Amino acid sequence: MTDPLVPAVLAFRDNGTPYSPRHDDIYHSAVGALAQAEYVFLKGNDLPSRWQKRRLFSVLETGFGMGISFLVTWAAWRADPDRCERLHFVSTEKHPFSRDDLLAASGAAVADASIAPLAQQLADAWPTLVPGTHRLEFEEGRVILTLVFGDAVQTLPTLWLRADAFYLDGFSPAKNPELWTPAIFKSLARLAGDDATFATYTSSGDVKRSLLQAGFEYKKVDGFGWKRAMLVGRFAPRYRVRRHEPPRPLAVDERHAVVIGTGLAGCAAIERLTARGWRVTSLERHAGVARDASGNPAGVFHPMMSRDDSVGSRITRAGFLYALRQWSALERRGFRPVRGPEGLLQIAADEGEASAMAQTFASFGWPQEYVAPVSRDDAQRIANTRVARGGWWFPHGGWIDPASLCAAQCEAAGGLLERRFNVAAARVERFEKLWIVFDENGVAIASAPVVIFANAHEAARVAGLRYAATSSVRGQLTLLPADAINAPRVPVIGEGYAVPLHDGSTLTGATYDIDDPDIRLRDDAHIENIKRVAQMLPDMRDAIGASSFAGRVAFRCVTIDRLPMIGAFADEPAAIQDAGKLRGAWPLDLPRADGLYGAFAFGSRGLVWASLGAELIASQIEGEPWPIERDLAEALDPARFLLRALRLGCAT
């Protein structure tokens, strides 16, 4: 179960230095925060010279605090004409500041004219204080801050990246000993790239011994301000004992990918790859984008709440928050998908669930800007219509037109995207360093070193996957005219959903008919939709007597565990050939089909999962830090069903 996130308490010493009452220690030297960060971490890691002329450079910090080290690093990157193309800064923080306290704490320290605007940008982008990984982008995506909120003892083992430099920060070993243990340094060693360096303001004997045990070598140098000494060094293990090397970029001669499918999954992949400078060829069997389930008039987006903060809840939380940031970034660039006003109401299944979830929200300390329990009276006021029970309110949930989002993402790709419609992919085949995509007549229609399968039901067949465990679910929507009902003011979900659209109509649904191929609209399905919604919104029963209904049928692709398939494909023949050796394998042990990736089986949560899934795939291809914890990525791994078969000894 996820531990509740406890924010930092802001206090100041008499000299104005920010101070932590919890650790009885200061956040930075009284001599100066900026000067300390520049001397200890930049100079200590020989930056910026080590990142110059590189495509990617990654920094891992233990203890984000006020963010001063990040801001100084960002400023140095901006000032360097030979800077790396992309700077990743990954930092853990057990007790993050609130947005207001972050500004207050850093206000005096960042008076420097080159830093103050960056501090404001950081505060403007500051994430909701919930546990997990939060990816923020600056400088048009060239500076990426990945904040990991939670105890570093628990979170560092879940990260997956190749770090070029370590900032060993945090409060002093005497005041914050859990951040300086051998286990912490072992976690860092697992992520260290070749010639990775480190720097830290401390020269504690325990820290030196732990560094040596983890494979780091160090030297003592003059400290900053009143400190006599500090440590710098590099990762230089005598023996290679790591089971897996940290991730590297996929070796390709040309940064070109084929994306099969232009629904939510495919268009998100297109946007994330072209944002990194990749050229993309999209293949779509229909005459335009978003013609299948992604073509529904509207879709709702919200996190999934559970009493134990399950894997599914953690994944939807990460996806929901990342999607909101990405959509806002699109809008700032002038690409505006159609979406409703913020806010979404979920009605509890019964009074027991309403009470239990309210207690759960309190125990986790979820901030009200993320989710808040509401009484029946409050729910009726929010919805502006009668409701059966109370539930919970998502202030930043809502609805969006999926097709308009797909169009915006493709438009953002600009000239890096080649669109090809009315082209049906049937299979792929490896030829030297390329994957060739063939149509059903055996004609080669595209080739690239990377292929991403985002074509839902067809993905496993076209990719030749045997271990996919997907099925088709028919979903029929019902569209009620404005004069048929007293429509809710905001989207309401629970037993079905009701979404008030801009034209005054209300979208309700959807049925969940497993392996039902019927494409016709059915009156009984319309009645089913209305009756289920009426369990939440009693006035909806008035619509049952309508003479006819409009609607739409679409088919969702789902897996047996209801999680999507996102990430690199396994080389199934190679894995089966070595089935005996792989019976106790973990995901990183599996052989992979270089250049083949999947983003499909999103079920009814494509809006929440698509952007994050695309970012995960792009990060895997580029060898960048992953945007979510590794255990969550492994829960989405397209190879997970193969892995289960290998462990059971039934993979053939």
TrEMBL record:
Chain intervals for the UniProt region annotation (tRNA (mnm(5)s(2)U34)-methyltransferase): 1-236
Signal sequence, renumbered to the chain: none
Recorded catalytic activity of this chain's protein: 5-aminomethyl-2-thiouridine(34) in tRNA + S-adenosyl-L-methionine = 5-methylaminomethyl-2-thiouridine(34) in tRNA + S-adenosyl-L-homocysteine + H(+)
Residue ranges occupied by any MnmC-like methyltransferase domain in the UniProt entry: 116-233
EC number: 2.1.1.61, 1.5.-.-
Ranges where the FAD dependent oxidoreductase domain occurs: 257-619
UniProt-listed Pfam families: DAO, Methyltransf_30
Cellular localization per UniProt: Cytoplasm
Main location: cytoplasm
Cofactor dependence: FAD
Region span, FAD-dependent cmnm(5)s(2)U34 oxidoreductase: 260-652
Keywords in alphabetical order: Cytoplasm, FAD, Flavoprotein, Methyltransferase, Multifunctional enzyme, Oxidoreductase, S-adenosyl-L-methionine, Transferase, tRNA processing
Function: Catalyzes the last two steps in the biosynthesis of 5-methylaminomethyl-2-thiouridine (mnm(5)s(2)U) at the wobble position (U34) in tRNA. Catalyzes the FAD-dependent demodification of cmnm(5)s(2)U34 to nm(5)s(2)U34, followed by the transfer of a methyl group from S-adenosyl-L-methionine to nm(5)s(2)U34, to form mnm(5)s(2)U34.
Family: In the C-terminal section; belongs to the DAO family.
Protein name: tRNA 5-methylaminomethyl-2-thiouridine biosynthesis bifunctional protein MnmC
Organism for this UniProt entry: Paraburkholderia azotifigens
Gene name for this UniProt entry: mnmC
